[in-house]
Amino acid sequence: MLAERVNPPTARGTKAKQEEDERWLACRRGAGHDETQGEGRIVRVGARGSEEGAGDGRRGEADEEDKNGAAGSRLLQTLILALIGLTFYAYYRTTVYDVRQFSLPRNTNHTVYQEGLHLHMNLSVDTRLTGAPRNSSSDNVAPSQYTAHSVNNLSTLLTTLSTSSSSSSASTSVSSKQSNEKQSAVQTVRISVSNATRSSSVVVRSDSARAIYETGHTVPIPERCPNLGKDMDLVVIVMSAPTHLDARTAIRQTWGHYGQRSDMSVLFMLGTTNDRKVETILRKEQNMYNDIIRGRFLDSYSNLTLKTISTLEWVGSYCPKVKYLLKTDDDMFINVPRLLAFVSKHARDRNVIFGRLARKWKPIRNRKSKYYVSQAQFQQSIFPDFTTGPAYLLSSDTVRRLYDAALDHTYLKLEDVFMTGIVAHKLGIKRSHANEFLNKRIPYTACNIQRGISIHMVKYSEQFDLWKKLLDGKSKCK
């Protein structure tokens, strides 16, 4: 049995071997079939991979093209936005330039200022216009000769004159004349009005104060001069800048306190400002004290002459019967008791301006100086005698005449030279030197303060010290 197991019979062994060989061949055939199928799958997978690779390549090229297209689109958008921005910038610059051409300020110190010529006429006929003139005011201005009409209303004015119930006949002639003398172009508009009794002629020059001055006051406060000043000896009008609140407050609390008297008033003259915050403060200040007159001029150093003209207009319109007008600045200390004594002493004087007299001053021809005066503005080599600007006293009969003459004269920003020198000299108004008008800074001794009427260059904090020394009766001064 053991031998049979170890060495099986040959037939059985042969048959088993054949079966094993058949199984082996069957396995081989199956493996070959699987290999063939595997190779097919490999080929198909490879082909699919190739196709996918090609697709990825095409997608990459498309993405690259998209990126290039997006970059080009962004560049185009940037160029379009830049063009739009340049267009708006050009339009803005053009618009601003055009607006500036039509928004020139009314009050300038240009030698030639052609816009808004005012025609000032003293007529006995009715000159009220149906349309509001350029210088129309909502203020209740008392009827006076301080009425101006613009050139644009010239035809309306003439129509009104021709249809008036009076027997006067009006004829006009408008001419323009250019003069190259001393590099100055002067243009004139002449209006002639004649009737059976008189004839008058008004010439408006573009370099005159009338061409740039706008009449009226935005805040007139006529109640500060009751009965047109009939019972008043003095009105003091202080030239002040809009921002000088401290100076005005110090004056109100010291020598300006005399303004509460019935025979005098102390008021402030201001122009306009473009600062809204300052305007808000000024409105509150006005509501509290009601002592600020507001003119229709831009408040600046170059317009000091306009400020003085506005002061003369206010006095002529609302306070013509007062005896004297003191024009002064907000850096001045005024000895009011001594000033009232001076006014009482000269109560009967007429046609006079009192102050510190400046004699034989020469105009400065240096263009860099803020006091520069051109040959076109003043040709002579020496100014007429004038009273210096910090403080001067005018008899009331000079106010109206100075106002009218100043408007028709060549404008000069040096207001004291212009008003009390050139214009006053032309009118034959006497300028009288008064020693009490110091108009300069002096040692602040009690005797100096009690002797003088006006002290210059006083800081608002110093007003209280001078006020105390003025009221101190212990000092004995000769």
Question: Describe it for me?
Answer:
The model is unreliable at 1-11, 33-49 and 95-200 (pLDDT under 50). α6 crosses α9. β4 (188-194) and β5 form a beta hairpin. The strands form four sheets. This protein has an eight-stranded mixed sheet with strand order 6-9-8-7-10-13-12-14, with helices on both faces. The chain has a domain at 217-472: Spore Coat Polysaccharide Biosynthesis Protein SpsA, Chain A. The protein has helices at residues 2-6, 10-101, 154-162, 245-253, 276-289, 304-318, 336-345, 399-407, 415-427, 446-451, 463-471; strands at 118-120, 148-150, 169-172, 188-194, 199-205, 217-219, 234-239, 264-272, 292-298, 324-329, 333-334, 352-358, 386-395, 430-433, 454-455. 40% of the residues lie in helices and 17% in strands. By secondary structure, the protein is an alpha/beta fold. It starts with a helix and ends in a 7-residue tail after the last helix. The chain has eleven helices and 15 strands.
Fill in the keyword field for this structure.
17% strand, 3-stranded antiparallel β-sheet, 478 residues, Spore Coat Polysaccharide Biosynthesis Protein SpsA, Chain A, alpha/beta
